[in-house]
Write a structure and sequence with these properties.
Length: 374
DNA sequence: CCTGTGCACAGCACGAAAAG
DNA sequence: CTTTTCGTGCTGTGCACAGG
C-alpha cells in the first residue's frame, strides 16, 4: 500500500493512518476532507442484514476477543505480553456445572455468572475481566474467565458452588454422589482414565472420595484455575484458548444462547491508538524507518490495503524509536491510567534487551501468526 | 488488514430495597 | 450487619455487508 497521502478527483484525501496495538503497528488508508474530518467510503446504502445470534463466535468476534485479551494483559502488566513475566497478577479460571444442565444458557448467565462477577468485583477488587461461554461435548455450558487479580481457588469454588445452588446444581450433584459406595465411585472415576491408572491417579481418586464424603458432596470441583506457570506466551495461549473457533459441524447442542463473550468496561474502552499525520508526516516517516529496520525479518506483512509490522511497541522503543512509542504511552495513560514512569522503562530496557532482542527471527508463515492479538 | 453502518438487546453500573 | 435482588439508564457487541 501507498504511505503517501493522495488527493482524489472529488477533492478528498486518501490519508495514511496508523493503528497501534501493544503487539503491532498497522498502516491503512482513510478518507479525509481538507478540514481533517474523516469521511466514509461507502455510498450511504445500508446493506441488508439479519442481526441474529449464531450461537458461535464469528471471525470478527474472534478478532475483537483476541484484541481485548491482548489489551487486557498489557494493561495489567506490559511484561505479560512482552517478556512473559507477571503471570501472578492474573487468574484464568473455568467455571463448570457439577450436574446436568437443566436451565437455559441465558438464565444461568443471568442468575449465576452475573452474580459471580458482581461478587468478585466487590470481594477481590476485580475491575478488568473477560469471559467466554462455551459448551462441552455433551452440551454443558461452562465459562472461561480471565481477570486482573490472583484469586484463591478454595474461596472461589465455595462462592461459585453457593451461587450455582440457587438453581440446584450442587444439590443435584450431592444427591447423585452421596448414593455411591466407594467401589461404585472408584469405578465411575476409573472410566475417565483412558490408559492404565497410575498410583498417583488412584490416590487422587481415593482422596477425592474422602473429600467428597467430608463435605457431604456439597462442594464439587466446579472451578478450575489454569496453571500458567509453564505457559511461555500467556497472551497467545489465552487468546487461542478463549477464541478458538468451533470446528466441524455446527451442532445444535453446542450453540450458546445469547452473549458468547463479554469484557468489563475497563477492558472495552481499550482500543488501538489511531495516528493521523494531518500536517506533517512524522508518524508515517518513523513507521517507514521501523519497516526499514525490520525489512529483512518476517515481521513485516503487506496486504493490498494494509501494511503491518508485527513488533511490540515496547520493543520498538528499546530499538530507539521515540515518537510513536511516546504517543502510545500517552494513549495508555488515557485508557488505563498506566503510570508514566521513565525510570521503570529504563529498567525494563536493560532486562528486555536481553530477553527480547536476541530472539531468533522465526518464520512467520501465516498472517494469523503475525497478527495474533490485533 | 482496516473502517463504517444501524438495530436489538445483553448486561454493565449504580443505587436502593429486600432478604437473611 | 452482610448478602441478594431489583430497577433504571446507558454502553457497546453481534450481525452482514459495504468501502478502501
Amino acid at each position: 500500500m501507498n504511505l503517501e497521502p493522495t488527493i482524489l478527483d472529488n477533492g478528498l484525501i486518501k490519508m495514511p493512518c496508523l493503528s497501534v496495538s501493544p503487539t503491532a503497528i498497522t498502516a491503512y488508508t482513510r478518507l479525509m476532507d481538507f478540514n481533517g474530518n474523516f469521511k466514509t467510503w461507502n455510498t450511504g446504502i445500508k446493506p441488508p442484514c439479519e442481526n441474529r445470534e449464531k450461537g458461535f463466535i464469528s471471525k470478527k468476534g474472534q478478532k475483537s476477543l483476541e484484541r481485548a485479551i491482548y489489551w487486557f494483559l498489557y494493561s495489567v502488566d506490559p511484561n505479560i505480553v512482552n517478556t512473559g513475566k507477571g503471570k501472578e497478577k492474573i487468574t484464568f479460571l473455568t467455571l463448570t456445572l457439577p450436574s446436568k444442565q437443566v436451565h437455559g444458557d441465558k438464565e444461568i448467565k443471568d442468575k449465576c455468572l452475573k452474580q459471580f462477577l458482581t461478587e468478585i468485583r466487590s470481594d477481590y477488587k476485580v475491575t478488568k475481566f473477560i469471559w467466554k461461554a462455551e459448551k462441552q461435548a455433551q452440551g454443558q455450558l461452562h465459562f472461561h474467565i480471565l481477570l486482573d487479580k490472583f484469586l484463591p481457588v478454595k474461596e472461589v469454588k465455595q462462592k461459585w458452588n453457593r451461587i450455582l445452588n440457587k438453581l440446584g446444581y450442587v444439590y443435584e450433584y450431592h444427591k447423585k454422589m452421596s448414593r455411591l459406595e466407594w467401589s461404585e465411585y472408584r469405578e465411575l472415576r476409573l472410566k475417565e482414565v483412558k490408559s492404565k491408572p497410575s498410583d498417583k491417579q488412584k490416590n487422587a481418586i481415593r482422596q477425592a472420595f474422602k473429600n467428597g464424603v467430608a463435605c457431604n458432596w456439597m462442594n464439587p470441583n466446579s472451578v478450575d484455575i489454569e496453571n500458567l506457570r509453564k505457559v511461555g506466551n500467556i497472551a497467545a495461549y489465552c487468546a487461542k484458548y478463549m477464541s478458538k473457533e468451533h470446528k466441524g459441524v455446527a451442532k445444535e447442542v453446542l450453540k450458546v444462547e445469547g452473549r458468547i463473550w463479554f469484557s468489563s468496561q475497563a477492558v472495552s474502552k481499550m482500543k488501538n491508538l489511531l495516528l493521523v499525520s494531518a500536517d506533517d508526516q512524522t508518524y508515517i516517516e518513523e513507521f517507514a524507518q521501523m519497516l526499514k529496520a525490520y525489512q529483512t525479518t518476517s515481521k513485516v506483512y503487506e496486504a493490498e490495503h494494509a501494511l503491518m509490522l508485527g513488533v511490540p511497541v515496547d520493543q520498538l522503543r528499546y530499538k530507539g524509536f521515540k515518537t510513536i512509542p511516546y504517543e502510545f504511552d500517552e494513549h495508555c495513560n488515557e485508557i488505563f491510567n498506566r503510570e508514566r514512569n521513565i525510570k521503570l522503562f529504563e529498567q525494563q530496557k536493560t532486562i528486555s534487551v536481553q530477553t527480547v532482542a536476541p530472539a531468533p527471527v522465526e518464520l512467520v508463515s501465516t498472517i494469523e501468526q503475525l497478527t495474533l492479538g490485533l
